[in-house]
Amino acid sequence: MPNYRAGACLWQSLARNPCLPRRYSSKPQNLDIESILAEPSWSVRSLLPGKTAEQSTTSITPQKLRHLLRLSALPQPSNPDEEQSMLRTLESQIHFVQEMQRVDTTGVEPLRSIRDESPAAVKETTIGLERLKDALAKEHVSGRRRRVQRVPSARNGRPEEDIWNGNALDSASKKKGPYFVVETGTGQAS
Q1: What is the dihedral of CA 108, 114, 120, 124, to 10 degrees?
Q2: Is the pTM of the predicted complex or chain greater than 0.85?
Q3: Do residues 129 and 123 make contact, with C-beta atoms less than 8 angstroms apart?
Q4: Where is this region: Disordered (predicted)?
Protein backbone atom coordinates (compact mmCIF):
# COMPACT_ATOMS: atom_id res chain seq x y z
CA MET A 1 0.00 0.00 0.00
CA PRO A 2 1.57 3.33 -1.00
CA ASN A 3 2.16 5.94 1.62
CA TYR A 4 -0.04 8.87 0.68
CA ARG A 5 1.15 11.03 3.57
CA ALA A 6 4.67 11.17 2.15
CA GLY A 7 3.18 12.06 -1.24
CA ALA A 8 1.08 14.81 0.30
CA CYS A 9 4.14 16.24 2.07
CA LEU A 10 6.07 16.20 -1.19
CA TRP A 11 3.20 17.90 -3.01
CA GLN A 12 3.03 20.65 -0.37
CA SER A 13 6.77 21.30 -0.63
CA LEU A 14 6.55 21.44 -4.42
CA ALA A 15 3.58 23.82 -4.26
CA ARG A 16 5.49 26.21 -1.98
CA ASN A 17 8.70 26.18 -4.05
CA PRO A 18 9.21 29.69 -5.50
CA CYS A 19 11.67 28.35 -8.10
CA LEU A 20 8.98 26.52 -10.05
CA PRO A 21 7.93 28.36 -13.22
CA ARG A 22 4.74 30.35 -13.09
CA ARG A 23 2.26 29.76 -15.85
CA TYR A 24 0.50 32.71 -17.41
CA SER A 25 -2.25 32.52 -19.92
CA SER A 26 -3.65 35.11 -22.26
CA LYS A 27 -6.91 35.27 -24.12
CA PRO A 28 -6.67 34.08 -27.72
CA GLN A 29 -6.77 36.90 -30.22
CA ASN A 30 -8.76 36.66 -33.42
CA LEU A 31 -6.05 37.47 -35.94
CA ASP A 32 -6.08 36.65 -39.61
CA ILE A 33 -2.82 34.72 -39.98
CA GLU A 34 -2.97 34.74 -43.78
CA SER A 35 -3.11 38.54 -43.92
CA ILE A 36 -0.20 38.81 -41.49
CA LEU A 37 1.94 36.40 -43.50
CA ALA A 38 0.87 37.78 -46.90
CA GLU A 39 3.71 40.27 -47.06
CA PRO A 40 7.02 40.16 -45.19
CA SER A 41 7.63 42.69 -42.45
CA TRP A 42 11.42 42.55 -42.77
CA SER A 43 14.14 40.93 -44.83
CA VAL A 44 17.36 39.13 -44.00
CA ARG A 45 19.09 41.50 -46.41
CA SER A 46 18.28 44.38 -44.06
CA LEU A 47 20.60 42.81 -41.49
CA LEU A 48 23.52 42.83 -43.91
CA PRO A 49 25.32 46.01 -44.99
CA GLY A 50 24.62 47.42 -48.43
CA LYS A 51 27.26 48.03 -51.10
CA THR A 52 27.47 51.77 -50.37
CA ALA A 53 27.53 51.32 -46.61
CA GLU A 54 30.64 49.14 -46.80
CA GLN A 55 32.68 51.82 -48.52
CA SER A 56 31.43 54.79 -46.49
CA THR A 57 31.92 53.50 -42.93
CA THR A 58 35.01 51.59 -41.90
CA SER A 59 35.23 51.44 -38.13
CA ILE A 60 37.94 48.76 -38.12
CA THR A 61 41.36 49.81 -39.35
CA PRO A 62 43.99 47.31 -40.51
CA GLN A 63 45.93 48.06 -37.31
CA LYS A 64 42.89 47.20 -35.16
CA LEU A 65 42.37 44.01 -37.17
CA ARG A 66 45.98 42.92 -36.61
CA HIS A 67 45.66 43.76 -32.90
CA LEU A 68 42.44 41.71 -32.59
CA LEU A 69 44.04 38.78 -34.41
CA ARG A 70 47.05 38.95 -32.10
CA LEU A 71 44.83 39.07 -28.97
CA SER A 72 42.83 36.05 -30.11
CA ALA A 73 45.97 34.13 -31.15
CA LEU A 74 44.81 33.86 -34.77
CA PRO A 75 47.21 33.97 -37.72
CA GLN A 76 47.89 37.34 -39.33
CA PRO A 77 46.76 37.84 -42.94
CA SER A 78 49.39 36.71 -45.43
CA ASN A 79 48.62 39.31 -48.12
CA PRO A 80 46.62 42.55 -48.56
CA ASP A 81 43.75 40.75 -50.33
CA GLU A 82 43.27 38.41 -47.37
CA GLU A 83 43.40 41.42 -45.03
CA GLN A 84 40.71 43.24 -47.04
CA SER A 85 38.56 40.10 -47.02
CA MET A 86 38.90 39.86 -43.23
CA LEU A 87 38.02 43.55 -42.85
CA ARG A 88 34.89 43.16 -45.03
CA THR A 89 33.79 40.10 -43.06
CA LEU A 90 34.35 41.83 -39.73
CA GLU A 91 32.47 44.95 -40.88
CA SER A 92 29.58 42.75 -42.01
CA GLN A 93 29.47 41.01 -38.64
CA ILE A 94 29.61 44.33 -36.75
CA HIS A 95 26.75 45.66 -38.89
CA PHE A 96 24.71 42.51 -38.17
CA VAL A 97 25.24 42.84 -34.40
CA GLN A 98 24.29 46.53 -34.51
CA GLU A 99 21.08 45.69 -36.39
CA MET A 100 20.23 43.05 -33.77
CA GLN A 101 20.85 45.58 -30.98
CA ARG A 102 18.41 48.03 -32.61
CA VAL A 103 15.48 45.62 -32.23
CA ASP A 104 12.94 46.91 -29.72
CA THR A 105 12.45 44.22 -27.06
CA THR A 106 10.35 46.16 -24.59
CA GLY A 107 7.67 43.94 -23.13
CA VAL A 108 9.31 40.74 -24.37
CA GLU A 109 10.12 38.29 -21.60
CA PRO A 110 13.63 36.86 -22.06
CA LEU A 111 14.06 33.12 -22.46
CA ARG A 112 15.23 31.17 -19.45
CA SER A 113 17.09 28.86 -21.81
CA ILE A 114 17.02 27.88 -25.45
CA ARG A 115 14.35 25.21 -25.45
CA ASP A 116 10.68 24.78 -26.14
CA GLU A 117 8.80 26.84 -23.53
CA SER A 118 5.31 26.15 -24.86
CA PRO A 119 2.66 25.00 -22.38
CA ALA A 120 2.77 21.48 -23.84
CA ALA A 121 6.55 21.25 -23.32
CA VAL A 122 6.28 22.62 -19.78
CA LYS A 123 3.59 20.05 -19.00
CA GLU A 124 5.74 17.26 -20.44
CA THR A 125 8.78 18.17 -18.34
CA THR A 126 6.86 18.88 -15.12
CA ILE A 127 7.34 16.22 -12.47
CA GLY A 128 4.11 15.53 -10.64
CA LEU A 129 2.68 12.94 -8.28
CA GLU A 130 1.73 10.62 -11.15
CA ARG A 131 5.38 10.32 -12.19
CA LEU A 132 6.52 9.84 -8.60
CA LYS A 133 3.89 7.26 -7.67
CA ASP A 134 6.24 4.27 -8.21
CA ALA A 135 9.06 5.89 -6.22
CA LEU A 136 6.71 6.88 -3.40
CA ALA A 137 5.41 3.31 -3.21
CA LYS A 138 8.95 2.17 -2.33
CA GLU A 139 9.06 4.41 0.76
CA HIS A 140 7.50 4.27 4.18
CA VAL A 141 7.28 6.63 7.16
CA SER A 142 8.75 5.40 10.42
CA GLY A 143 9.67 6.68 13.85
CA ARG A 144 8.45 9.41 16.08
CA ARG A 145 9.72 12.14 13.77
CA ARG A 146 8.00 10.51 10.80
CA ARG A 147 11.17 9.98 8.78
CA VAL A 148 10.70 8.73 5.24
CA GLN A 149 12.79 5.63 4.50
CA ARG A 150 13.19 3.52 1.41
CA VAL A 151 11.80 0.00 1.56
CA PRO A 152 14.74 -2.40 1.14
CA SER A 153 14.43 -4.47 -2.00
CA ALA A 154 15.73 -7.99 -2.52
CA ARG A 155 18.60 -6.89 -4.76
CA ASN A 156 19.61 -3.44 -5.94
CA GLY A 157 21.61 -4.36 -9.05
CA ARG A 158 23.02 -2.07 -11.65
CA PRO A 159 20.92 -1.76 -14.79
CA GLU A 160 23.89 -2.47 -17.08
CA GLU A 161 24.68 -5.85 -15.49
CA ASP A 162 22.50 -7.63 -18.04
CA ILE A 163 24.25 -5.94 -20.94
CA TRP A 164 27.95 -6.15 -20.02
CA ASN A 165 29.59 -9.33 -18.76
CA GLY A 166 32.55 -7.55 -17.12
CA ASN A 167 35.22 -8.65 -19.60
CA ALA A 168 36.73 -5.55 -21.22
CA LEU A 169 38.87 -7.60 -23.62
CA ASP A 170 35.87 -9.11 -25.42
CA SER A 171 35.60 -6.13 -27.74
CA ALA A 172 39.36 -5.94 -28.50
CA SER A 173 40.29 -6.97 -32.04
CA LYS A 174 43.78 -8.22 -31.03
CA LYS A 175 44.74 -9.75 -27.68
CA LYS A 176 47.91 -11.21 -26.24
CA GLY A 177 47.27 -12.94 -22.94
CA PRO A 178 45.43 -10.66 -20.52
CA TYR A 179 46.36 -7.56 -22.62
CA PHE A 180 44.99 -5.99 -25.78
CA VAL A 181 47.32 -5.07 -28.64
CA VAL A 182 47.48 -1.52 -30.03
CA GLU A 183 48.92 -0.89 -33.48
CA THR A 184 51.44 1.97 -33.50
CA GLY A 185 52.11 4.37 -36.36
CA THR A 186 55.06 2.29 -37.63
CA GLY A 187 52.88 -0.73 -38.39
CA GLN A 188 54.41 -2.96 -35.71
CA ALA A 189 52.48 -4.53 -32.85
CA SER A 190 53.57 -3.54 -29.36
Answers
A1: -140
A2: no
A3: no
A4: 143-190
